Amino acid sequence: AANALLVVNNIEVIYDHVILVLKGVSLHVPAGGIVALLGANGAGKSTTLKAISNLLRSERGEVTKGSVNFEGQRIDGKTPDELVQQGVIQVMEGRHCFEHLTVEENLLTGAYTRKDGRQAIADDLELIYTYFPRLRERRTSQAGYTSGGEQQMCAIGRAMMSRPKIILLDEPSMGLAPQLVEQIFEIVKLLNEKEGVSFLLAEQNTNVALRYANYGYILENGRVVMDGEADALRNNEDVKEFYLGLS
Ligand code: ATP
User: Where does the record place the ABC transporter domain (predicted)?
Assistant: First the structure.
């Protein structure tokens, strides 16, 4: 596609040299898009995100086939730090704030690859607080003592501090009450619309993901079994039966 920002082409991932987990996954995210990666527990959503952001090595996983392109350039093989500098950042499942740092210190760690100076970083911190007023209120609290929702906000805010073009967001709804899930997704939508950040988000909560995404891919057993516009997927009988019934 002409306006593709991120293109994943036929990637295969093997864990521990033998366990084939992704069996040729292809997808793309258009510039300015919110794309949902859906599927049951263990379908391969997290693995796909980690393959893109090159975070598989510490889990003894390896991309053994296929390619990943970002803005028309091959990015597979780049280190996670290089990817952050290019504008590709992942927010891992389970939030991953530094528990012993304050919320504000956590946000500032997100700026570690930047070279544009103190004032720009201070301005962005202020910007993040306008999207996440709750984080401003909690800015001097130790992150480990904030709520699950606040930690998810902190993790997204921290990613925003790197000035990303795309955020790979793993299971943002996990463990959060429905009202908070809505709040998080509303902010994702705002960041997309106002800051131009694209999102590839992995979600088991098909219902909420398809309300906020423009497009979705459904993974089963390491393969894409269906994809389409979010509205079309929401009205698809199989999707209704297998993925929307329970969430
Ligand atoms: P979840 O919602 O649980 O994260 P998922 O769709 O993101 O599910 P993955 O976490 O990508 O799925 O896992 C896909 C498959 O790979 C599962 O069968 C899982 O057991 C396996 N797997 C994940 N990590 C490893 C690992 N480090 N070593 C071996 N197998 C793994």
Answer: 6-246
